[in-house]
Amino acid sequence: MEGRIYKIYGLVLSLAMCFWSCTEEIDLNQAEDLELSPVIENSLLFFDAPATNFFAGANESSEFSDFIELDLFNNSFTRNNIVKVEFVFDVLNSIKRSFELQVDLLDDLDQTVHTFSFEALASPDASQVYTKYTEVFEGNRLRVLMNANKLSFTLIVQEGEAINENTLGQINMKSKSVFYFNIND
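Above: the chain's sequence. Below: its structure in token form.
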């Protein structure tokens, strides 16, 4: 009998706490003001080559090109919510020659709509020299990028000490694209 009284007393006390407890009014309309700002990073270009890759047969090779096709901006979600894009390049060069990387943005007719370039400095003593470069696309420049269908990359070996089959060092380049979104629907 005594156990039953404690159970009833506990039930009454629990119900009383539910009715008299403090609660804050919840405003579900705040969800309409929700704004998300995700940042997405993606690998863009990777290049790792010893100095001997720039020497073919008896000749020094001074230019290498490649391209990637862009289809990132072909959907309305991306076009409507992207606010900024960065291309970030990290280069380690231990070759006694500097290198220029030229990037061309091409439209669907393969016409250049934007170009940028930067130089990876030469190593004076075969130790690694670090170069970082960031190209930012916002506003009008972002619209130009969104209309590009290809990115063309050209690595150009600059003038300097001759490269042969015994030249030491290597160039290592990594890059990424960073996409900044603002979603507020």
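The first strand starts at residue 39 and ends at 50.
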